[in-house]
Amino acid sequence: MHRAWRSIPVAAVLLAAACGNTGNNAGAGTGATTTTTQGQGGKTIALFLPESKTTRYEAFDRPLFEAKVKSLCPDCKILYSNAEQDAPKQQQQVEAALTQQADVLVLDAVDANAVAPLVNQAKQKKVPVIAYDRLISGIDYAYYVSFNNVRVGEMQGQALLDAMTARGTAAKGQIVMIHGSPTDPSSADYKKGAKSVLDGKVKVGREFDTPDWSPDKAQQEMEQAITALGKDTITGVLSANDGMAGGAIAAMKRAGYEQLPPITGQDAELAAVQRILTGEQYMTIYLDIRAEAEKSAELAVAVAKGEQPAAPTKVNNGAADIPAFLLDPIPVTADKVKDTIVKDGFYTAAQLCTGEVKAACEKQGIE
């Protein structure tokens, strides 16, 4: 098991990031490249995130990464870009960062199967690349930082099977599987892990690969499944993340479900954790995004300075064995929220326990 790197609560980091930002951050969520500077003479670190539909990227990954870089290297400059799920835009952003003489690229690729030419451009300029969250295939590069994605899928599959077994529905009806974007290699890992648990134990009625991880498209897919299978035959939903789980739940509510079947998720989004507490969603996978962002920042600063930190493992991407840091995912049901998500400061009780969620929080001892 790989250890997780932990530090101060997220709320404190976000506050520090907000207060310490002295650069120009106009266009932060628009896909524009933004620059944060805290001095002169430092290295330039470029961070590229793929989209903002998944709330974690702008709410957590970016501010946590920036705060850690600034704490380690006050004179470093950060170039930040969000591609808004547009691969050509991300290409332009990477090329712009290379033109601005970035010393290291931290890249969460929109299409991780198609960015090898960008990585090659960086290599030609002797600029190291760190693959962040999504494994880039087809080319060698410096590091890969993510979670054990097959294990994520295994945990989702096991949780769904456990919930259906508890309800006595594992051998009845059919499940719907809503997978992530086909351009994200992590999706294949989640799928592989879930199927290794569920194959032969449940019947799959419908299965979808969801472009862009879009909640809206997931809602449409769930509506198609309900129409094709009939709502009374669907006894479980394997959703690869929380945003798509929200879309599937909206479709089921619209279809008039009196009791929702168990549904999985991932990312511990605020709305999803609230749904778990109130019983609409069965579980999520809690990813210690703080650990992922901070470890990536540590590597970026070290690599920019010419260092080569040792990695605990390697992952083969089809072209090379990439030095990797793989963090452990944590499955969270309603009874685990207090001792994981709240305990770590990922969300406070005040953030979670609003409106109709208050009673559910009290039931779980969250105050």
Automatic annotation (TrEMBL):
InterPro entries: Bact_Solute-Bind_Prot2, Peripla_BP_I, SBP_2_dom
Entry's Gene Ontology cellular component terms: outer membrane-bounded periplasmic space
Pfam families in alphabetical order: Peripla_BP_4
SUPFAM superfamilies, alphabetized: Periplasmic binding protein-like I
The protein's name: D-xylose transport system substrate-binding protein
PANTHER family: D-XYLOSE-BINDING PERIPLASMIC PROTEIN (PTHR30036)
Gene3D superfamilies: 3.40.50.2300
UniProtKB keywords: Signal
Domain Periplasmic binding protein: 45-308
Residues annotated as signal peptide: 1-28
UniProt GO MF annotations: carbohydrate binding
Location within or outside the cell: Cell envelope
Highest taxon above the source species: Bacteria
CDD domains with a match to the protein in the record: PBP1_ABC_xylose_binding-like
